[in-house]
Design the sequence.
């Protein structure tokens, strides 16, 4: 047995009675779930260190979004100084190094999700991209990022009007052989790079993806144009223009020389009209009540014209300096701004950026797959280098796996809060809570199977977590709605994961595509190095199975669950394939045919495959477990399997696997029996899932179970909570009657 | 045709192409959905008035929670001054007056949900309760509230450790015949009244529900006790005590006279230990850096002892003065505080209160069902007056109906944002959005059927809205996560509705109970004055029905949908009844038996009944519609019915209504066909559902469809959005390399 004394014991209290009924030691379960003693130690070391550091103390009221950004950046700086990633870890095997990075990420994420996002994007994603897309000449950036922490980077891919479809991006980088520079340009606001994490306030460099254009087509160079700027009837600036000076003030006498009246702000709301960039001159020596805002016709009148015959070599990566690292001032030629307030993770400064003929050195092109010579000739040993890039981007699974790990933390924390609350609030009442317990092992093997696995698992896990956190909030009733219960923050910070790093719907479709390919070629053997779909070769036999159980015991068996999932996958694949073929044969385009299948099949297919993966890998782990944990792990696995199957009863009936009421009756009876069996274990399971109280940061879920004392402390201790409102004079009636 | 020119026309723009395909006039649909021309005019009048009033302008950044409370209170004062409720409306019929109040509530809620909650609790709920529970002597409170707006009230029912189960409440009001007062007391923190809206900062009176105790049992009066206050070993105050002075400072020399050292705050976090009320003395003339906090052994040493033989007459209502209306200072003898930050609706000052032998005049008892004479004798003409009160509280359906109306607004707004975004972002893409469109008519008739109807409909509507807002957020991708998209606020402010005014799970169970009673007595005729369950008398025939359709056209018929719902209800009732009886016959208690049925049946039963109600009442309205709107309304109704049925396929298969794949196949094909039929209508449907742009307050959902211009304005116009962070000095490295 491993020495787990580094995990602090839990305080004795009202939860003791529930803990005494558990069949296992919660610390051993925690180790089993983590899977590695050193990583678990690392996690606790990080939690203990941050708990002692007052910079990481939870604020008593939510700071302004600006203050959240400041604290997040300061916390990142502090974490850099703590050097949790030792040189020894960095020099170990790829797999060990990756798991160490992921553990640090998870430990930091659980304390402040914004910090981990900041670190993941600004340091790890950037330096990995330099290694995979760049060459020796970019080592200086790598060194300054990962070792010296002088660079904090961002990742500029998405544009305002274009999601992640790389072919539609409009930002261009045109090579100028005279100066040996790339000229980066944003044609209009729709092409502004946006949602760029770290860009709003803090990054010094961005990894830009832009269409690379060389001068071997016709480049007409600088031209003067008469460009319509404002509507003569209303003097409103036309949409799509950024008019105004973007740099320092040159000469105060410029003010007011234009000789016409320009409407600047809507008098009703004082909002600046679209197309204008208007700023206050800042603090002056005196008369600070007057705002000397100014407007100049800026540089946008001069344009590079690039005709359609200029060769566009597609999307490439560039390192672009954005801010002076010494002063954090934005360089001239850029319009950089913060995206403003979001629903959650407000510690991250998501930004947007527009380039106005902005120049960067030729060497800043990430040139692993293709380069541009000093003279402007495009050279590559790959036939389609921009497709290589696309493929490389698509397979950046690390971010998605990180999100899954974070989701595991979020769901664990939410469930810990809800279960401890339920246990202290009252005896277990009307309904039991299911604990979908998932464990993912990281494997390195065939890329396409892994891509499919990750693409279906990220949606499953992030959606399941979103639902579970919401159910936990509702299970905690009104008190769950208190900010200090932490369920609101868990939810709002988790929320964007269903969209970013690959929208869940898009990823589901990709996983479905891979599965269909395997199904179609199953007769000739599947391409499944990890063996997750080899059963498809037995598809006909599997589909002949019928449900024939008569007792719940037969259902509460991992073998039953796995074979039912195999039936489901075979049936869904057969049906999806048939429907798709039938739509195509009716003359529908492939896109339309897919759309029709998507609503009811593709998404289900992908979800069922993800659940199947969770069950088979978890089953393998459980069977290898040789401590006393196997019984409880097996119960949790069966519970999860049955609960998941319950979501697919329609398909099981529709496909004829079962008819009549026995399947639904037995399945739901089995689930209720599993609830009863897990009831004595559940508080200790939650102890194993929960982080420390400091990290959990919930007045309802503290491990001591002293619900009402903790609630009282929180309510009485709130800043100014019992004070008369400072604004009382504004709201009382004058001379009210005494009643 | 009604003159609808008071509804502003929509701006022409990119959405025109979608609007031109609609088969109907969106303003007529808006009127049809609202159901009353005068009410629609009232709503627009309110929206236009508030749009012009700068106090209601949306803030550019989220204000602090304290500032949100201040603005909300100022807005309430302003709305009071606008007098939207005219004397004429007030004097009209009950039904007209109620609908006018609900319309004002909905219009205000859509601009700031906190204001409408404040108004509903503080003015309407309180004055209604005075009318239904009080007598002539409480008219002064009524007048001061509804006419003079001098009183802002709150509603103190829930206690920290007890939800809405009135029997378990611990706050007592003991009558003291000597002074002719009630002495209100809170035995411990678990009995503190909490979540009391308006109590935290602003209300002047609270409507308190407390156990009434008369002195005709033994009242031992005032006694001195030796009460353990602090642990001698650690000098920590025992939990459950409120120690400290609650009023004005009497004499500065009291400080430090106790002669022992009391630990006051945790040195690590500076949080006050539980059980202490410690406050700063406030501003002094000089030396303001020193905080003269003080602690005195307070009044809690003196206690009324009420022995078990003192008669407890159960829960009664009292009007309790909380703050001086002239100064908003809390009266001595009370501990009143704000609940602190919540997930949403932070404009509402939810509070908690504890009473320390607090005295109120005898007359403040709401005495419609029972009174206490001056000498302390309890008198009532009702046999169980406290049960009367409970029944009266349970049937306060108005609040729940208000929530449903607000949910309709929330779901309409979210769908408007998502559809307009989808239409401008790209052509309708891979999937269609369903529009669950619900309309509820208000009827006044048999109380128990209405209670059942409201109890199942509130959960259906609030849960559906929560899911729909989330799906709208996801459908808007990353941009939906922007604060200025407004989907986050719509969601967070809607979120508590699933818990308050009757937790959804509890309400569902109550509706299920009523349905089961009807089922059990169906042979002898059902008690259904509104006719919603009269079909139960044909239960046997209905259950003999089998699914036999062969074409989607047969499913796209309201008659098919209604008859399938009747089958579902009959089957669910039969199964629930059987399962419940079987559990009871196995020796389970009624509570346990209900719990077992609850997980899979009761909740479904209640939901299916609610959907059935929506469908039959909507169908009735549609059939009465004689304008050109009937086709589109019918399409929406069929779409909703099919979409809802799709959620219950398992039950339809399990119960043998269908077997094999034809039901699922045809149902889902019919839904896809309805999507296609509704596609040309959907933008105009949304125009009819949406409030004005000012109220919708979403950068993604503006009616002009100029998505990118609006987004640009929002991003560029954010306060300080392009400034260098003011805290840049704290986060840059000293002397970084130039890269």
Sequence:
């Amino acid at each position: 047995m491993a020495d787990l004394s580094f995990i602090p014991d839990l305080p004795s209290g009202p939860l003791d009675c529930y803990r005494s009924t558990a069949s296992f030691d919660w610390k051993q379960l925690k180790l089993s779930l983590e899977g590695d003693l050193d990583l678990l130690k690392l996690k606790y070391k990080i939690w203990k260190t941050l708990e002692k550091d007052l910079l990481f103390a939870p604020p008593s009221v939510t700071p302004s979004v600006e203050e959240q950004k400041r604290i997040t950046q300061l916390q990142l700086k502090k974490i850099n100084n703590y050097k949790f990633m030792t040189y020894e870890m960095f020099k170990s095997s790829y797999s060990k190094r990756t798991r160490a990075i992921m553990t640090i990420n998870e430990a930091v994420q659980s304390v402040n999700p914004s910090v981990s996002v900041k670190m993941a994007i600004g340091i790890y994603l950037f330096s990995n991209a330099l290694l995979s897309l760049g060459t020796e000449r970019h080592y200086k950036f790598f060194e300054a990022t990962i070792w010296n922490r002088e660079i904090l980077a961002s990742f500029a891919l998405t544009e305002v009007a274009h999601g992640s479809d790389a072919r539609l991006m409009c930002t261009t980088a045109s090579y100028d052989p005279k100066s040996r520079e790339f000229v980066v340009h944003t044609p209009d606001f729709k092409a502004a790079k946006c949602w760029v994490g770290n860009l709003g306030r803090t990054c010094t460099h961005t990894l830009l993806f832009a269409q690379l254009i060389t001068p071997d087509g016709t480049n007409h160079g600088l031209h003067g144009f008469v460009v319509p700027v404002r509507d003569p009837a209303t003097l409103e600036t036309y949409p799509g223009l950024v008019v105004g000076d973007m740099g320092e003030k040159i000469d105060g006498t410029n003010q007011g020389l234009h000789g016409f009246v320009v409407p600047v702000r809507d008098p009703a709301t004082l909002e600046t009209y679209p197309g204008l960039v208007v700023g206050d001159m800042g603090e002056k020596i005196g008369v600070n009540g007057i705002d000397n805002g100014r407007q100049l016709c800026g540089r946008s009148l001069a344009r590079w014209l690039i005709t359609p015959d200029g060769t566009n070599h597609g999307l490439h990566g560039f390192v672009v300096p954005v801010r002076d690292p010494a002063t954090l001032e934005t360089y001239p030629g850029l319009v950089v701004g913060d995206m403003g307030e979001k629903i959650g993770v407000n510690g991250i400064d998501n930004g947007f950026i527009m380039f106005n003929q902005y120049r960067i050195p030729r060497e800043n092109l990430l040139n692993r797959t293709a380069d541009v010579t000093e003279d402007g000739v495009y050279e590559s040993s790959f036939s389609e280098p921009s497709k290589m890039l696309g493929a490389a981007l698509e397979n950046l699974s690390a971010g998605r796996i990180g999100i899954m790990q974070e989701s595991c933390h979020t769901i664990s924390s939410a469930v810990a809060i809800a279960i401890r609350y339920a246990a202290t609030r009252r005896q277990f009442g009307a309904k039991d809570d299911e604990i979908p317990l998932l464990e993912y092992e990281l494997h390195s093997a065939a890329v396409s199977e892994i891509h499919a696995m990750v693409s279906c698992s990220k949606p499953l896990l992030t959606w399941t977590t979103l639902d579970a956190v919401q159910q936990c909030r509702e299970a905690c009733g009104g008190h769950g709605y208190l900010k200090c219960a932490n369920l609101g923050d868990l939810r709002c910070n988790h929320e964007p994961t269903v969209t970013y790093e690959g929208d869940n719907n898009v990823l589901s479709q990709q996983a479905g595509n891979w599965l269909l390919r395997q199904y179609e070629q199953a007769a000739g053997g599947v391409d499944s190095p990890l063996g997750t779909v080899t059963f498809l070769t037995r598809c006909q036999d599997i589909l002949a199975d019928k449900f024939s159980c008569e007792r719940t015991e037969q259902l509460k068996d991992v073998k039953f669950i796995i074979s039912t999932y195999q039936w489901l996958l075979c049936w869904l694949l057969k049906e999806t394939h048939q429907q798709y073929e039938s739509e195509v044969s009716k003359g529908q385009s492939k896109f339309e045919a897919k759309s029709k299948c998507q609503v009811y099949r593709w998404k289900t297919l992908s979800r069922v495959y993800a659940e199947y993966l969770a069950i088979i890998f978890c089953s393998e782990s459980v069977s290898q477990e040789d401590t006393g944990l196997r019984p409880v792990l097996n119960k949790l696995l069966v519970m999860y399997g049955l609960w998941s199957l319950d979501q697919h009863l329609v398909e099981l009936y529709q496909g004829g696997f079962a008819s009549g009421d026995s399947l639904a009756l037995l399945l739901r009876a089995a689930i209720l029996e599993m609830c009863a069996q897990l009831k004595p274990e559940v508080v200790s399971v939650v102890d194993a899932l929960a982080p420390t109280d400091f990290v959990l940061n919930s007045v309802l879920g503290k491990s001591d179970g002293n619900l009402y004392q903790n609630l009282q402390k929180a309510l009485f201790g709130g800043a100014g909570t019992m004070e008369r409102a400072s604004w009382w004079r504004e709201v009382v009636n004058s001379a009210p009657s005494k009643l």
